[in-house]
Amino acid sequence: MQNPAYTLGNYRITTDPAELDVAFIHEFLSKEAYWSKGIPIETVQKSIANSLNFGLFEQDRQIGFARVITDFATIAYLGDVFILEAYRGKGLSEWLLQVMMAHPDLQNLRRWILLTSDAYGLYKKIGFNTVAKPELYMEKHNPAVYLEQKS
């Protein structure tokens, strides 16, 4: 697997897992992200260990993150995409997503998927659409899983 790095002014994106600030990622996902409130640090660590990760940095400070869960052959799921609020509105989200989609190990996939409740415009800009045939999709979803583990 390749670990390219990308730069845009003072910002850079890396896929090197050694550079990720796992405490920062956990803090955001467990307290700020609507999709993962209460997620344990161990779950974040395991998810990072089993994904292709993209850390967004302003110089040496991590300001964003996203990951791809994939078989590197047919499908990719885009997850845990976030940028700190102070850095939003600068085009960094779109750049991060473009870098992810252009990663050399993620080319020629048949399908990319994601879930969002508030960023449809952003994802449409890079080619995502609503599901054409939602009747084909099924899910087993437990949104309270992390909160239940603490009981």
The CATH homologous superfamily is termed Gcn5-related N-acetyltransferase (GNAT)
Strand content: 25-35%
Give a count of the beta strands, DSSP E runs of length 2 or more: 6
CATH architecture call: 3-Layer(aba) Sandwich
Strand order of the largest sheet: 1-2-3-4-5-6
- How many structural domains does the protein architecture include? 1
Overall 3D geometry?
A: globular
Q: Termini distance?
A: 39 Å
Uncertain segments: none
Rg, nearest Å:
15 Å
Structure, explained:
The chain has one domain (5-149): 3-Layer(aba) Sandwich (Aminopeptidase), CATH 3.40.630.30. The longest helix has 11 residues, at 92-102. The termini are far apart. The protein has 5 helices and 6 strands; from the N terminus they run E-E-H-H-E-E-E-H-E-H-H. It is of the alpha+beta class and 151 residues long. Helix 3 links the parallel strand 5 and strand 6 (111-114). A 6-stranded mixed sheet has the order 1-2-3-4-5-6, with helices on both faces.
Secondary-structure map:
Elements: E1 5-8, E2 11-14, H1 22-31, H2 41-49, E3 52-58, E4 61-70, E5 75-83, H3 92-102, E6 111-114, H4 120-125, H5 145-149
Parallel strand pairs: 5-6
Antiparallel strand pairs: 1-2, 2-3, 3-4, 4-5
What descriptors fit this protein?
151 residues, alpha+beta, Aminopeptidase, 6-stranded mixed beta sheet, 5 helices, 6 strands, globular, Acetyltransferase_Butenolide, Acyl_CoA_acyltransferase, GNAT_dom, GNAT family N-acetyltransferase, acyltransferase activity, transferring groups other than amino-acyl groups
